[in-house]
Amino acid sequence: MRRAAIVTILCLSAAACGRTANTPAQQGALDAGVRELADAYIDGFFRQFPEAATSYSLADRPHDRLSDLSPASRALRATHAILREALESAVATRVCRSELWNVSQMTGWHVSLGYLVTIQPTGGDKARQESLARWGALPQFLDTEAANLREGMKLGYTAPKHIVQIVIRQTRQLAALPVDESPFSAPARADRTLEFQARVRTLVSEQIAPAIRRYADFLEREYLPAAREAIAVAANPDGERCYAAGVRAMSTLPKSAQEVHDIGLREGARIDAEMKLFSGDLDRLGMLSSQNWRAARLVVDTGLHALGWTRQQAIEYMLAHTAQSAESAASEVDRYIILPGQATAYMLGRLEILAAREEARRAAGSGFDIKAFHDRVLEDGAVPLTFLRAKITESFRASGS
User: What does the alpha-carbon distance between residue 42 and residue 273 come to, in Å, rounded to a whole number?
Assistant: First the structure.
């Protein structure tokens, strides 16, 4: 373990790294923050695993202890697993260069910031100053987004044309809202200070709305003609690696696209067979219908991004295997198109937990306690599934209950 390696991991995992050009002062502060975080991580690592300092021949570290394997210490394994998965996933997904084709009807700036502004703190002089500073920076933020997209176009990274058309409509609608109805006027609606309200409204009408229109014009006139016709992320440079990294990041499981696709087909067939057996049980049918939807997601997500499916093919599969309407199925497919791998997490997670339950049942035999199993699943919160399964198996083998 060396500082350089940790700094590289942390820098690659930070969204700020490589996203935009920084001033020397900003870059200096960012570098200092990365070094501080790396030092803290390394110090914690060697406290937890003191033998490693000896293995790496580090003269400036203590060599007087063995690792603490007590139950209290083992609780930190979940934290370690979460941190490791987060760092490894962040590094792996950097291949996607998402900042260079960040045009999304689901997670684009107009969605995320359009919500953030509604919860912007207000009610005091400091809060009002911070609000004006943050949202006064939005026009420059949008210009930077456009610059990033231009760089992506040069390097071959673009969003699908169909998605770009959706975002153009969304941003034009946002820019056309009356000032008092714009989400970016939310701070004025939450604060009764008349001067502040006037400044916010002026900011929206004279700076923010024109900047949004300028961004929408850029998308329509410059970006849309260059956007990719293909819907699969595989059409971008290193797209196949990007999709594999997306599946791993979303599911925390090391499965190939073909494996995920096949799992979806098998689960869909199994659920279809069950639904014929429970035709009179509405509650059971509702549960199976939800499971079938999640199984269909595995098939469609991988079909779109790894197996050459068209958007229409994906919609038709959803209509044939779920209870969704045509409009809902189309909206879902568009979501899968712009969030590669995200839809695989639901059913893969369910199946992994069920597999862990069966392993625990076999290990505990007649002493298996479903409540104890649920406690083990939930006690650490959201953890990587590979860690969860190994922890549960170990726990039930050791306790026998």
Answer: 53
